[in-house]
């Protein structure tokens, strides 16, 4: 989407539709206050009124509700409400008169809500021109001072990256294979001098003895990939490691999932999508930090060659694991990737994964779960979540949870005894592979799709891109 900041009034903005916000008890700007119907314009949160003042483009009045209850999340929401109304009115460009024009964070939030709401996944519709879905908004002008320009552009870069992550999530598993994700990583590296890509093939993964990734991939014909992106942005801080679960389809394997809901398991690579596109956004923003991203990618298929319940494997760091449930595959591939990222220089590490159904029960789609071995990093992740609107809530890592992951015949089991504390025990398993490195695991199984918020709706959400970009901004040191 084209985004610009202009020092103009509503009439001079040159957009097809002007948008103004109205607080409870507030007043409309003088130029439109006398338009027919202006007195009845509604100020309740998300309420809409359309005015047609003389000598003006049409003006959409968006109710902002009570001033005291209005913050950045509400801005993302009204941004989305206006963008969807503009689409319904078949309008291609809007100009927003910001409620607080000098506030850079507000500008970023409004841009975010607008771009995320102006998204649709229709790549596989053959007659896009003639279908009856509304025309999507193409251009957003913010009426405000030049000082908010940087924030508006940051919002645009992150939101567009998030929309690309949504594309990757929604692309079906017959197209979005591990090879496809590896190609996207290589494309990102081609686009930025500061980014390089390395992709390990099955034989290289075998040579490195990444037993988790190999075990999960052995049931299907798709070649697994261990995808690595390195970003050298400089700065004086520690190298940040990002790891994203890239299971391009999770059938459960021999511990087969029930059929209902299985199509969503094409999105079991949502962590990978967020990590890859966050790296692209971080590079586009030129943030001053060094980064290594590792994405283990594979399908999880049942077959005569598939890993079986009870099989014992050896992970990249040498620990042995009983695979007691082949549907708990995410932790097996993340274990190798975490150990590899640390070996390759990650000094603090954050992983994103659609890891457990239990997190959907615990936190729904409102918060992702954070499990960490380091209070400061956990706090940073939670803060980046709060600042970006991608919320995260910490769950405890007590030593007792580690006990639940001990194996009977091997060092570890991939399944907790009696399935206790599903989300935490998955985290306790991962902790075995990070040593002393500060690490935070973010379980996004509840937030990666069907969130139902105004600006992401249902379907793929791209959750994590904004959180990771925000985290990288905190790490950025110039
Ligand atoms: N990909 C699933 C988790 C998931 C479930 C993501 C629902 C999104 C929505 C993961 O691989 C899985 O199947 N986990 C199992 C682990 C269990 C067998 C210990 C689960 O949560 O049931
Ligand atoms: Zn699974
Ligand atoms: Zn999975």
Write the layout of secondary structure elements.
Layout: E1 2-6, E2 17-23, H1 30-33, E3 48-51, E4 59-65, H2 72-88, E5 93-97, H3 104-117, E6 139-143, H4 149-170, H5 178-191, E7 195-200, H6 202-207, H7 211-217, E8 225-232, E9 240-244, E10 246-250, H8 270-285, E11 290-300, E12 311-314, E13 320-323, H9 330-343, E14 348-353, H10 358-363, E15 368-372, H11 375-388, E16 392-394, H12 399-403, E17 412-413, H13 422-431, E18 439-443, H14 465-475
Parallel strand pairs: 1-6, 2-4, 2-5, 5-6, 9-11, 9-14, 10-11, 13-17, 14-18, 15-16
Antiparallel strand pairs: 3-4, 7-8, 8-11, 12-13, 15-18
Helix pairs in contact: 2-3, 3-4, 4-8, 5-8, 7-9, 8-14, 9-13, 11-14
This protein binds ligand BES and zinc ion (2 copies).
One zinc ion binds at residues 247, 250, 268, 329-330.
| Overall shape | elongated
Q: Proportion of β residues? A: 15-25%
Please name the CATH topology of the largest domain: Aminopeptidase
The strand count comes to 18
Please state the structural category.
Answer: alpha/beta
Low-confidence stretches are none
Which ligands are bound?
Answer: ligand BES, zinc ion
Radius of gyration: 24 Å
CATH superfamily of the largest domain: Zn peptidases
Assembly category? single chain
Could you say what the CATH architecture of the largest domain is?
3-Layer(aba) Sandwich
Distance between the termini: 28 Å
* Count of the separate structural domains: 2
Q: What is the helical fraction, as a range of percent?
A: 25-40%
CATH class of the largest domain: Alpha Beta
Mean pLDDT over all positions: 97
């Amino acid at each position: 989407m084209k985004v610009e900041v202009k020092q103009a009034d509503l009439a001079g903005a040159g957009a097809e539709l002007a948008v103004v916000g109205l607080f409870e008890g507030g007043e409309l700007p003088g130029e439109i206050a006398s338009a027919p119907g202006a007195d009845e314009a509604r100020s309740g949160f998300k309420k809409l009124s359309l005015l047609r003042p003389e000598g003006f483009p049409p003006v959409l009045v968006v109710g902002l509700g009570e001033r005291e209850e209005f913050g950045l999340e509400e801005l993302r929401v009204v941004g989305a409400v206006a963008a969807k109304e503009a689409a319904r009115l078949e309008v291609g460009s809007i100009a927003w008169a910001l409620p607080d024009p000098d506030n850079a964070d507000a500008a970023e939030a409004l841009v975010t809500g607008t771009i995320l709401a102006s998204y649709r996944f229709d790549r596989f519709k053959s007659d896009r021109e003639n279908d009856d879905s509304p025309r999507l908004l193409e251009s957003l002008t913010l009426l405000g001072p030049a000082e908010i320009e940087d924030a508006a552009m940051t919002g645009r870069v992150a939101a567009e990256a998030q929309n690309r992550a949504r594309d990757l999530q929604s692309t079906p598993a017959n197209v979005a294979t591990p090879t496809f994700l590896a190609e996207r990583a290589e494309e990102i590296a081609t686009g930025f001098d500061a980014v390089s890509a390395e992709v390990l093939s099955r034989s290289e993964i075998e040579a490195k003895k990444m037993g988790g990734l190999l075990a999960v991939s052995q049931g299907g014909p798709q070649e697994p990939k261990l995808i690595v992106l390195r970003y050298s942005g400089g700065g004086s801080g520690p190298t940040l490691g990002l790891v994203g679960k890239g299971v391009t389809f999770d059938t459960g394997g021999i511990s087969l999932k029930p059929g209902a809901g299985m199509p969503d398991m094409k999105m079991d690579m949502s962590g990978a999508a967020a990590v890859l596109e966050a790296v692209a956004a971080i590079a586009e923003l030129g943030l001053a930090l060094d980064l290594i991203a590792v994405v283990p990618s594979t399908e999880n298929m049942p077959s005569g060659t598939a890993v079986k319940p009870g099989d014992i494997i050896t992970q990249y760091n040498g620990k042995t694991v009983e695979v007691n449930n082949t549907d708990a595959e995410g932790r097996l591939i993340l274990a190798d990737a975490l150990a590899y990222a640390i070996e390759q220089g990650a000094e603090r590490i954050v992983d994103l994964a659609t890891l457990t159904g239990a997190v959907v029960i615990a936190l729904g789609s409102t918060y992702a779960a954070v499990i960490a071995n380091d209070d400061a990093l956990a706090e940073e992740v939670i803060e980046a979540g709060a600042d970006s609107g991608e919320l995260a809530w910490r769950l405890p890592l007590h030593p007792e949870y580690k006990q639940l992951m001990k194996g009977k015949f091997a060092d570890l089991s991939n399944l907790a005894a009696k399935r206790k504390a599903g989300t935490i025990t998955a985290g306790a398993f991962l902790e075995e592979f990070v040593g002393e490195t500060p690490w935070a695991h973010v379980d996004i199984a509840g937030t990666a799709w069907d969130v139902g918020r105004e600006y992401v709706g249902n379907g793929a959400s791209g959750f994590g891109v904004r959180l990771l970009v925000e985290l990288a901004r905190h790490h950025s040191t110039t």
